[in-house]
Amino acid sequence: MALDATVVAEGLRKRYGDTTALDGFDLRVRTGTVHGLLGPNGAGKTTAVRVLTTLVRPDSGRASVAGFDVSSRHKWVRYRIGLVGQHAAVDEILTGRQNLELFGRLLHLDRARARERAGELLVRFGLGEAADRPLKQYSGGMRRRLDLAASLILTPPVLFLDEPTTGLDPRARNEVWARIRELASAGTTVLLTTQYLEEADQLADEVSVVDAGKVVAQGTPEELKKRIGTDRVDIVVRDGADIPAATRLLASIAAGDVELDTERRWLSAPVGDRMAALAALVRTLGEAGVAAEDIALRRPTLDEVFLELTTATPNKPTKPTKEIA
Fold it and tell me: Sorted alphabetically, which PANTHER family does this protein's record hold (predicted)?
């Protein structure tokens, strides 16, 4: 086990009847980082979190959190983790303060300490002014922030977030992202499952792509982007009649096949030396009299990584796991 790994899973397997939820799931989450689990619906992300948080026992394999085995020492694990599920676990009838005090009492804090801790967390999560309002008056983002606060009553070193921004609008999502960044900067180890590519790109120090119950790739967002290809040049030509000429010119400097969308008058191709390719393309387009509305250099996106690495059809073979060095 790596000494700097706070969350470790090795060969986890879990079946529900005829359904295989985890099929040799391996994971290492470095201490003090945000680690994203990225994958389609049914990939096994939530089952992995349920095993790591001691809610479900694996059929085989092993896992540890904060140095404690999740099966044989589950009580020790539970005192060292916080969990925010896909749906808020707070009570709408109670106020924000009452919710947090209730969580504190359920976690065996005395009344005075529960009240004190609730006050600290309400301020920390920007809910001080709304502390004594009932939750039915809270926005979605405020409720999610209160849910995060409730998971930190005992200041756990490890926090599991299972699709924490599902159903939130962009403003509320940004609010939750800001709080997650604050937690990570303070030293909390965060394991985040998400279907939002932008969320993983924004928050995660490392990402594990999960498909068919196993991790098929792991690395930083930039490493994963580099894995599926080089930089690309995108062009939008002004006149659709120039598409054939633009295609020939782009192909002459490209490091791979040219992609084409005639309806949008858009062309794209991978390139080697990005700046040299861009300069050559601008020059040759000008010489040929082809006008471009837009020319852009870009790296592959996590969307493209996701589509490349995850199973597109039930019969498509899963790619082998590969650690990005």
Answer: ABC TRANSPORTER ATP-BINDING PROTEIN, DOXORUBICIN RESISTANCE ATP-BINDING PROTEIN DRRA
